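We store chain and fold; example below:
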Amino acid sequence: MDHLVHFRLYASLDHLVQYARSMTELTGAHRDALIEATVAEFASAGYEGASLNRIIRAARISKSSFYHAVGSKAELLDAVVETLISDVRTRWTSPAPAEFAGEAFWPRVEQVLGELGGLTAEDPALGLLGRIFYLPASPGSDARAALLESVRTWVGDVLRIGVASGSVRDDIPADALAAAVFGMLRGLDEWALSSADPHDAASAPALLLRGLLQRPGAPRAR
């Protein structure tokens, strides 16, 4: 299962189709403008403070067209997140946790980080998704909450593979390591999206993860 980009949106394919149709009906040629306006508004004002009127003005879309397809902030945010995830999925999918087994663990980790770093530089969809990925959850079920949960699950599964293969320390519970890794990656994402030097943003994650996860006394990568 692709844990990075797969999510359960109200556990129904009908809802996914509905949101995809909403973006098509709503934006037409202005799809990118709406996505960028939505991300900017939610990233700066949060879910509660986000204003649909400001988004409509920024995207230069008529209110009648907008409200014909989307009836609430929750629907808009889900539609945008689904669209961004679909865009990313055409370029990259996460490897199965089993691919990290044995001596492949650290080379595979570094490969994944390199792929994501390159994709972030080339594809605006991943950068836009990163700006709203960690916002506080909106009321009820939403696409971001499901996506976050699947990322947490994937990280935990990968770490358990690493512990079992001896590549990851076993003196700390795997669940605690997963929480620490997720928090570190969140901080690094926010740092990289704000003011990080591209070279530092590419090299820092692997170095920090090794420092956190490798067994005490294990040889350090050069």
The chain has two domains: 13-89, 97-213. The chain has ten helices and no strands.
